Amino acid sequence: MTLLQHKLHRSTTVNNNERMLNDQRAQSQHISALFLCRQVPVIGMLETCREVMDIFKSNPELPCIVYCREADRPEGLIMRDDMFRRMTGRFSREIYDHRPATYIADMQPMMADISLPLSKLLHQALNRQESKFYDCVLMTDQNKLLGVLTVQDLLHLSTSLQKEAESKREFILNESISHTLKIEQSLNQVASAAQVTQARSQVIKEWSQSGNEKLEHVSSSYKRLVSSIEQRADSVSQLLQNADHISSMTKQITSLADHSKLLAINASIEAAHAGEHGKGFRIVAGEVQSFAKQIRNLSEDISNLLIQIHRLVTETAEASASSLQDIRSCESAVAEGGHIFVQLEQVAKEVGDSGGQVHDLTEEASALIKQIKGEMEMIDLQDS
C-alpha cells in the first residue's frame, strides 16, 4: 500500500469473502486520508524571518512552512516551534528579523515520494534522530510538493495501517479456521472411507479364503476321480488283453473242433468198412462228430460275444480317455482359480493394511488439525 493508494479512491471488484475486510480497509484509509498531505505556505529566497514569523502568528494551526527555490520543488523546511524558539530570544529580532528565512531553514528535511510504500515511509519517519523526530515530512510527486505530514499524521497513518493489518490478520485467521474445519471434515470422511475399505477388504479376504478352501476340496475330488479313471482305464486295458487272449483260445478250440470232426468222419468211414464189427465204433464216431459240431457252435458264439465285448470295452476306453482329458483340463482351471483366490486374498490383505494405514494417518492429521484449530481459536479469543 502506498500513500497514493490512501489518497486516491479506488473502485475494485472483490469477492464475497473479502468484501467485509475491504469495507474495513476502506474506512481505515478514509480516516488516514484526512491527515494526508496538509497544504502549507511556500516561500522563496526573498522572504525574511520576520515575514515568516508573521505568517505563523496569523495561522496558529500552521505546523511549518516550506522553502522552494523553484516552483513546487521543495528544498528546505521551517518548523513552527523552531521558528518561535529562535525569534523569542533577547536579541532575536535584531539578529533574525531582516535575514532571509532560509538562514534558519532545515535544508535537509525528510522528503518522500507519494509512491513510497506506507510501511517504509512510517519506518523512515518514526526512526529519525530525536532532533528531527517531530519535523514534518515533505510529500512529493516526481519532486513536486504535494503537502506535508506531521508526526500526528504519521501516527494516525501507523494506527490505520495497524488496524488494517489487524483486520487482514483476523480475516486470514477466520479463513484459516474455516479451511481447517473443511480439512477436518474431509479427513473424517477419508478416515470413514478407509475404515469401510478395511472392513470390506477383510470380508473379501475371508471370501477368498473360503473360495480357495472349496477349490482345494474340488481339486482333491478331481485328483481322486482322475486316479479312479486311470485305474479303470488300466482295468479296461487288461480286459481287452484278456478278451484278445480268450478270442485266440476260442480259435484254437474251433480248430480242435474242426479237427475232431474230421477225425469222426474218418472214423465213421473206417467203421463202415468194418461192417458189423465197426457198428459200435460208428456210433461213437457219430457222437464225437456231433460233439465237435456243438463245440464249434459254442466257439462261434463265444467269438461273437467277445467281438461285442471288445467293441464295448474299446468304446469305454475311448470315453474314459476323453473324460480323463476333460477332467484334467478342468483340474488345471481349478488350480488356476485357486491361485487367483490366493492372489485375491493377498491383494485384499494389502488393501486392508493400506486402508488401516490411511485411517491411522488421517486420525493423526485430524488430531493435528484440531490442535491447530484450537490454537487459532485461542489466538482469536486473546485478540478479542
Characteristic key phrases:
3-stranded mixed beta sheet, 74% helix, 8% strand, Helix Hairpins, mainly alpha, CBS-domain
Q: Summarize this, please?
A:
This protein has eight helices and six strands, in the order H-H-E-H-E-E-H-H-E-H-E-E-H-H.
Describe what you observe in this structure:
The chain has helices spanning 3-7, 16-33, 49-58, 80-87, 92-96, 118-126, 151-274, 279-383; strands at residues 42-43, 64-70, 73-79, 111-113, 137-141, 144-149. It is mainly α and 384 residues long. The chain has two domains: 36-149, CBS-domain (Roll), CATH 3.10.580; 177-383, Methyl-accepting chemotaxis protein (Helix Hairpins, Orthogonal Bundle), CATH 1.10.287.950. Strands 1-2-3 form a three-stranded mixed sheet. A three-stranded mixed sheet has the order 4-5-6. The two termini are 26 Å apart. Residues 1-18 and 24-34 have low confidence and may be disordered.
- How would you describe the shape? rod-shaped
Looking at CATH, the homologous superfamily of the largest domain is: Methyl-accepting chemotaxis protein
Range of strand content: 5-15%
CATH topology of the largest domain: Helix Hairpins
What is the architecture of the largest domain at the second tier of CATH? Orthogonal Bundle
Instruction: Spell out the helices and strands N to C.
Output: HHEHEEHHEHEEHH
Report the biggest beta sheet as strand number plus sense, adding barrel if it closes. 3 strands, mixed
CATH class of the largest domain: Mainly Alpha
Radius of gyration: 62 Å
Helix content: over 70%
Give start-end ranges of low-pLDDT stretches. 1-18, 24-34
User: Cα distance, first to last residue?
Assistant: 26 Å
